[in-house]
Amino acid sequence: MPFLSQFRAAPNLLTLMRLFIIPFLVIEILDGHYGKAFALFILAGISDALDGLLARWLSQRTTLGQYLDPIADKLLLSTLFLVLTHVGLMPRYVTVLVFSRDLGILLIATLLFATGTLRDFRPSLFGKLNTLVQIIALIAVLCGKLFASPGLAMLRDGLIRTISVLAPLSAAQYAWIVFRRINTPQQTVV
Fold first, then answer.
1. What is the Cα–Cα distance from 80 to 125, expressed in whole angstroms?
2. pLDDT tens across 81-102, in order?
3. Domain map (residue ranges) of the chain
4. Exposure class string for 48-82: b at 16+ Cβ within 10 A, else e
5. Is 101 exposed, middle or buried (0-12, 13-18, 19+ CB in 10 A)?
């Protein structure tokens, strides 16, 4: 499929919608409208689930989508961590750990891709778990502004502590995977 035509694929349109949601999500948080921010975050999550389903159902898997979808996901989560830190709802150290991990992975993936060293850079087990915990933690933070609940506050705090462990752990796992793949001799197929 020609590159510009890939923008018209339904899954990619949903991914683009997720990108367009981000500034409005930031505005709602900065203005203290946490109900609207929560609704936009849920809408972004639904669009993320639907774009993958549509790509499979409609056979519209595209090169653009393979790159755009994870970029949209990371941009959404990273932006939320930044803005929630700015308004005092997320500890700075957690945002620094999340950003350091993501930036390191992005730089390594870009270098490996550009040099042709490694083209297959799938999420690791700890990477997937880290992302899941980040999403649940962000939901808990936003819900904490909507519903006063000691149980929710305890859950949020536990999830934030979990991220502070999982972020560097998943970064180390990615580094180990890359190190192993680069140092494993390529087998030739006869």
1. 23
2. 999 999 999 999 999 999 999 8
3. 1-73, 90-183
4. bebbeebbeeeebebebbeebbbebbbebbbebbe
5. buried
Torsion angle defined by CA atoms of residues 57, 51, 124 and 22, in that order, rounded to the nearest 10 degrees: 180
Range in 19-23, 157-161, 168-172, 183-187 the model is least confident about: 183-187
Q: Which of 67, 7, 79 is nearest to 37 (CA)?
A: 79
Tokens of 91: 């500890």
**Tokens representing 23?**
């500034």
Amino acid at 12: N
Nearest-angstrom CA–CA distance, 92 and 87 = 11
Lowest mean pLDDT among 24-38, 100-114, 126-140, 147-161: 100-114
The structure tokens listed for 154 are: 């305890």
Alpha helices by DSSP H, 31-91: 34-57, 63-86
Indicate if the pLDDT at residue 6 is higher than 70: no
Which segments of the chain does DSSP mark as H helices, in order?
A: 3-6, 10-30, 34-57, 63-86, 92-115, 125-146, 150-183
